[in-house]
Amino acid sequence: MSYQVLARKYRPQSFEQLVGQEHVVQALANALTQGRLHHAYLFTGTRGVGKTTVSRILAKSLNCTGPDGTGGITARPCGVCPACRDIDAGRFVDYVELDAASNRGVEEISQLLDQAVYKPVVGRFKVYMIDEVHMLSNTAFNAMLKTLEEPPDYLKFVLATTDPQKVPVTVLSRCLQFNLRPMAAADVQMHLTNVLGAESVPAEPGALRLLSRAARGSMRDALSLTDQAIAFGAGSLSEDGVRQMLGSVDRGHIVAIVDALAAASGEAVVAQADALRAAGLSAAGTLEDLATLFQQMALAQAAPTALDDTDNETAEIRRLAAALPADEIQLMYSMALHGRAELHLAPDEYAGLLMVLLRMLAFRPAGTQPRPVKAAALVRPAAVAKAVVAVPLPRAVPPVAPAVSLAIAVSAAPVAAAVTAPVAAPPALAPAPAVAPAKVAEPAAPSFSDRLRPKPVEREVVAEELMDFDGPPPDDAPPPWMDADDLPAIAIAAPRGEPEAPRRAVLRETPEGARWAERIAALSLPGMTGELARQAQALACRTVDGREVWTLRLERESLRQPALVAKLEAALDARLDIEAGVAEDSIALRTIARAEAQQRAAEDLAADHPMTRTLLSQFPSARILPGSVQPLTPTP
Length: 636
Known about the structure:
single chain; alpha/beta; Rossmann fold; Helicase, Ruva Protein, domain 3; Zinc Finger, Delta Prime, domain 3; 5 domains; five-stranded parallel β-sheet; three-stranded antiparallel β-sheet; 25 helices
């Protein structure tokens, strides 16, 4: 007798033997037991998860007569009656399997439906099983709609597909749909252990673990790979042999890469990449295994009890999970996934692999681990220590700047102790009346998620790291945050093909401009109509025949379009006369001027605050970071 492959030899013969599809088994078994049978079923799922197997078991359950020939519909087919044996052997006349991939036309479907008018020959039900039903043509789908909706009592349809999105909704609405899920790796490994035990084939647990992961949720693929591994290993399965057969990367290489990333060692990362190249191992497989390890490390951090303690790799996973913070693991996992898709764009796959690993190293937060020697040599020596300086301001603040936040950078050279110990305010410093004392937090390296998060406008701001700082500015130099000109800068669009040149628009407030701003504030103008109103300067307003007539000046030609002007006229119930020219008193200019006035007031307030002056005098090389002073919205 010829050899029968494991995928066919160990095909489940009953619902109890199905692995990993309990949700489908429960629904079908209850329906069969209670007699609530639908006339059409649709099984969806990826390859090798049991769609055809469930169809055959369902057909046996509908037609089983029991060992004594007196049985009825059951959720546990006997497997020994003529109907069960013939369905298993593929010769039951009332069970028809049609491959829609090769019989996708309307003629084949019409021939099948023509036989539906005849009652079953030997069975209780006729069962039509159409595999890969999404391959049918539109005319074939339309031909079967009527019969699929109202078939005879003795006819059952079973449809199977790997791509339900291609099945028309008119067909989906006529079927009960069951989605067969991909198998979990643990379920596949357990089933392979049972199969190889029945076959008396010795196998190492590590080999079965590799096979179950390589199957990617398909039990048929797992059994086919097992057949290949048995042949490769001459009747036995070893972890090294299966790894060689699959071309998988040794776990030791993956662990060494993660150790190098945790130690922030670029030399070690490059050495591991060179070792993978020398061994001829797959770069894509390396990134895949690396992503799997990162996923297990994240699981060990979030839910330590979810790992299998019987797995020899669990202890190693927990050790690595303790070496990296959670946000870095998530980032490296994402880089491994996206880097695998970018390998074909690299000059060669090993160069792409090395760049992905170096990217993981480059995006680690500075200061979390000691940098390697070569990397540290590239950093300029005069770095600035990081400190959190909160400067509370008195509540009695001018309306334009109710509160401000600022960051002060302190040079590391004169105050080296500030890097290793918390920075404290001088003992003699006493808080001013109605002012809370300054709070200086201990320097700490921000996590990667903190570095990516936008800086909030709040009362505590982390000082930026400065490089090559040569000391405080000269005494006669203006403050670094002050501009030479206090007027707002407006960028004027240049003609097509010419570079844009920034120009300064002078705000000259006029009574007409104030009246125009009040008039527009009473309206809610959306989109370009509102932009026209904000950019225009009101030159005059008069009344003609009881209707307002506004004379406006507007520079942008795109806003002077008749359609926009008509919309604004309708909103104002007035007439507009618009001339070209640069506006000198518009709502937009007033808004910018008001914002800059608030900014200047906040900067002056921060510079004159007693706490700021004390800190600047205590640290001779300190200065306020440009752009760190921001007005805050008053707290209610």
